User: Fold this.
Amino acid sequence: MEELSEQLCPFCQNKTLVLREDLIDIPYFGKTYVFSMTCQDSDCNYFKADVEAEEKKEPCKLTFTVKKEADLNVRVVKSSEATVKIPQLRMSVTPGPASNGYVSNIEGILNRFKKILEDERDLSDDDTTRKHAKNLLKKLWKVKTGDVELKIVIEDPSGNSAILSKDVVVEKLKV
Assistant:
């Protein structure tokens, strides 16, 4: 792993930014660069991360159906350019300037959506929004226990995302 310390943070303008780059070999995906920027200033805490395949990939659409509890362990690589969708919940996370790339698993993706729903449930002033969030949280819980199937779709114009399962459906993304 390469690391550069005391770099200029783009937000707080202090020389407290740490840049990291690592090359990892992900089975069935290939060599992948993992990049991160972390500001060590306790008032700033800026963070940005991304992943990029060593070899150029085609834009892709990945569809995976979570059918059983064991599917929660399926490995996921998501680039900062990818959109993650859960059609049955009518939810998606689209890329933007604050979007991060990461290596996780299906459970990690579901937990990110769970956090969004918990914030809606706990912070919304609208009773209908809170009730809707509670119902979706129940559905996510049923998915995690293997009682309900759920489809996850990742659309990535960079092609740097993957769901590492023999059950994933990979299509060319129309850009």
Observations:
- Helices lie at 106-123, 127-144.
- Residues 57-175 form a domain with the Jelly Rolls fold (CATH 2.60.120.1040).
- The first strand starts at residue 2 and ends at 7.
- The mean pLDDT is 94.
